[in-house]
């Protein structure tokens, strides 16, 4: 069999290990006593429009059309609804002919990178980064190059970025709001990134594409703006998923939006279609395509995540821990009081706090705390964090 | 951008071209006067259990669990239901730990071939074959080798098969009932195939896997048996999809079943999990996983397809055309009275009969007629076939 695939299938992810430990522990001491902050699974219900729309769609008279194949790039009505939403909110150039419906964020990224990269190319991203980026880049025949972020803000360190850009750089991949840091790139960061990539593209004689992975776009707190990539940099592609905004992670529905102003945009869009075909994606799930078109612009009640963030961030800071303040997503990336994050996680386990070491996200000395959990659980977990802090005399 | 992906995206399939022509023509002369036999889109409604189950699932109190991530290999309850169905009907060894839920048949095949193959391997299949097999094999780094079938029966020509098996053969891919011929492999064919592959595996010193692509398993007419591959050959993998049996092609739901008796089955299953991960499949759509578990063993009313086949086959034979009798699927593969199938299709177009040349399926001198259409349309199309036959003085 294929050895790369066997390795990928047999090496269980650290997150999954911790999650399984949590389930076993819950049987021993009761689920209410285990504080599992390991998974990025939305805890807030889908908005009412999800159930209402499903009920309406299911009653449609033409059941074969409802569940039938759509065109490979997605149903035209659906792509029009999404393009109109993007035009109204972010980018007046959005056009249904540059939208490709996908089976969620992982598909959006694998397809986009496969469309862009040739064997030996490099995809640059910024640590901390979502653990699967490495896998997606390698599927596209490319190598993931991670650049350390500014440790105080987790915004981009441009000196470090410039040092890695080169003749093999095909794309730069950003994720804002970020998993695992929760940090949102501000306008200044995005504008400077655009400028840097323009110069580098000229210097190295080929276009460096900017790919924006943004399943957390709507999960921002306190009116923070998430700058829209295509408005700052022309050779850009937005990868979106409804998993978090509509709390539908299992339904696998998202899209790719190729900036129509990009030189060769039409050809690039065709390469996206080709990559979808090559990877075995025939079309995105039909019923959920029709659903997202009717729920466009709606989100789950994200105020719950904001409250969770505030409660947890305040308490952790009071205990003496330190985190960069997350403006979005539903993660806190906390500095560990000892350099070995895995050792810290083991100590946390004694108090039944399940956290994920940052090592897998390309950052040593941190843990990820996924606060997409019930506010009750957070309240119950606070004393455990306090005890953990005391162990380190914080 | 990636040139392979661009080519795959920009080269429109012949089937799609014909379908688009049909839509334009329908605007000119009315849809009822265009006889479009180009697409393999089920025309029969999903069975009642689909709507009933969806309505029940949507009312489940825990909406976040309903639409949440399942484990990567699929929900345990779902895999148990499917394993139990396979045990009860086909293979008493079936086990949920060897079932991997997929985003439909194309995903099942791309994942399976990626798990099996290394760069430079060969995947052997039998012409006529589904056009996308070549793409799926190439994504896995392999080369598709097509073997001509016995022209009288479209069963396997074993001399020709033996001539291509070699040290690079990693897998043999079968599709019964077949798209586009409608032919079902009988027990004799499958038993001899197993024997041939056992000998070849021994001769070349490595296992040759048998992959069975069977989305049409339940679409058979007149009590014809579809032998279950794992009962005949141990190193075997079944790729299944609910697209045709439940008329849900747009929802993208199927599974891979690795024969647990295969040497190294556990490792192979892990490679399947790894390939799913590498190709960007996080999990199969959650709602439809739960749906198929509750509709297991149910099918659409396939008697409609049988009537269509009988009407069309009788009429075409009466007109003087010749086809191998299809026992399953919803396709007729008809010999063209002139050697150039494309020229024949052009002539057919004059009578607004839209057929697909066999060249794309690896067989010259044939056309595919997809009879998954309304019986009314077939009745209206009969005179057109008659006129076409007269042109050739049949």
TrEMBL record, chains A, B:
Chain segments annotated as transmembrane: none
Cofactors demanded by this protein: pyridoxal 5'-phosphate
Domain Aminotransferase class I/classII large: 33-383
InterPro entries documented for this protein: Aminotransferase_I/II_large, NHTrfase_class1_PyrdxlP-BS, PyrdxlP-dep_Trfase, PyrdxlP-dep_Trfase_major, PyrdxlP-dep_Trfase_small
Record bears the keyword Transferase: yes
Record keywords: Aminotransferase, Transferase
Enzyme Commission designation: 2.6.1.-
Protein name: Aminotransferase
Native source organism of the sequence: Candidatus Borkfalkia ceftriaxoniphila
